[in-house]
Every structure is written in C-alpha cells, then in structure tokens.
Amino acid sequence: MTIDPTEAIRPWDEDRAWRMACLARWGMPKTVDLQRFARESQRVDGAFAIRRLVRLLEGLPEQSLVRNVSVAAEQDNGVVWYSLTGQMQLGRKPQVLLKVQAQILLTCQRCMQPLIYTVNESVLFDVVRQESALNDANDAEPFDPETPEELMADPRFDIEQLIEDQLILAVPYVPKHENCTAAASPSQEEPETPRVSPFGSLAALKGR
Hints:
Blueprint: H1 16-22, H2 34-39, E1 43-49, H3 54-57, H4 69-72, E2 79-87, E3 95-107, E4 114-128, H5 131-139, E5 149-152, H6 159-170, H7 203-206
Parallel strand pairs: 4-5
Antiparallel strand pairs: 1-2, 2-3, 3-4
C-alpha cells in the first residue's frame, strides 16, 4: 500500500460515508506497536466523543455532549473521527498516515459569538526507532514543511495522544468568522501567531 500525502482532502460532505464507517469502532483508540503497525500496513478507524480530549478543550467553550454511537450518528458536532494507516516503501522509513475530522466549537474573536471550526486533515509521519534520530531531525536546519514529522517507534503507541496533538495544532490561534456582524476594527484585532509543532517537544512522552 502506498499513501499519497499530496492527495487533496475531500470536502466534508463527501466523507460522510467514511465517518459513518468509523462509528463501527466507537470508543477511545487503543495503543498499537507503531513499528509493526507501519511495517505490516495495518489500519485502524474509529470515532469518539471530543469531550474526552481534556488538553484540547482547555479554555474552549463547552462542546456538544455525545454519550454513545447512536447520538454520534445523528450529529457532527462533538465527535472526532479518525483513521491511522501504516505503509512501507522500499528504501524508506516506515510511515503512518493520520486522517482526522472534527467540528469544534470556538468563540469568534471579532464578534465574540459561537464559531464552528471544521478540522479535516491528513498528516503523514515517518516512524523512527531511535530517539537520537528524532532529535537530530528536530535540530536540522532549515525546516522543510514537505518533510514528514517523525514519531518514535513505541510498542504501546498512544493513538489518542497523536490525535489530540493534531487537533491542537489545527485550532486557529485567533478564530474568526469569515464574515460577522460585529467585526472589530483593525486596531482591536489581535495579531495571528503561528503555532509551533508540538511533536518535537512531545517526542519523549511518546517514547514512554
């Protein structure tokens, strides 16, 4: 199996069938042996309530309550859908592709009204076996955005933590509606600050 990391992400509505299929594995994702997972081209899909992600939701408005799969099948808010797919290519490191979707309730920083932010991302990662290789890659200059992030091979790799890290990265630092009725003047708007990838600093945690 070969994953194309440049494949365009389909619009939200076109992935409805994929999200419904994910509901068949409702609940928090289990840990996996990441090296074996990638080498054997394994795949896992699933869905769970976004309220379980404490770090992501710190400081955010209260999200929709989704208690079970029947509720998740009826609404999009309050649910995280994901798939993790492994692959091996000749002459390359083992890789995994994370696909994650969610609709997260935020507050628009112009009009201070609710804003539903749609996350629809696919991210490719290289799997490395030694921490030194991961550290060397993080210290390398200059940073190439086309180069996959690296994950430490862990026999009990926490998929949930990876999903939460990616959602944290996806949430805008200063969320705003494209158009809102109470837009602030330019002097009132906060400058947008680019988010720094947490994967380098969390590499040691993933290796535990």
